[in-house]
Amino acid sequence: APELSQMVALGLAPKVAAGFLKEMTREVIEDTENHTRGVDRLRVIVDSSGEVGAFSASNARNVSIYKREDKRVLHVGGIIVAPELQGKRVGTSLVRSEMRIEGANLLAFHTQNRYMLDLGEKVTQYSYMLSAVLATEFETLNPIEQIVGGVRRVIQENRYGQGSLYGHLRRDIAIKGLGKGGNAIFYVGERNK
Hints:
Distance between the termini: 46 Å
Helix content: 25-40%
Structural class: alpha+beta
Largest sheet: 8 strands, mixed
Number of strands: 8
């Protein structure tokens, strides 16, 4: 019998493929499974007909910063919003809700997507210092500092291999100035009051 993570991936993969404008392939299913396996929270929003409209996969945990204060971090491993719901604040509402439920005062994620970066900056106040301090704790290998769009960012080179997650189909959503195709920003921000 297939594992629960495989069944979940099969159900969510069509929305992942649509979100990335890719064909539904075994690679998309495996990538979906990798992003949803072992997460603390998998939140799925369905419409009245039972169709998946959006989902997020995340983990929440406490971290100590400079051994002085504990912070609760919501680390979003993946979020997909169906194309017909994009631009309607579904993703923003989903992340705000997850932060509230988890009691998280920090949001963290890796991204190449300018809309995800915008979402983070709507929900939180970006902190380069927190991003740099927490980078290795959130599996950001060999983090480097880079100015992207006039802002100092923490970057993981080749996080997604040699190419962009979006390939040539979705260059409109890729963050400009990241350098090589597989580079990603590691973002940490404090929840807006």
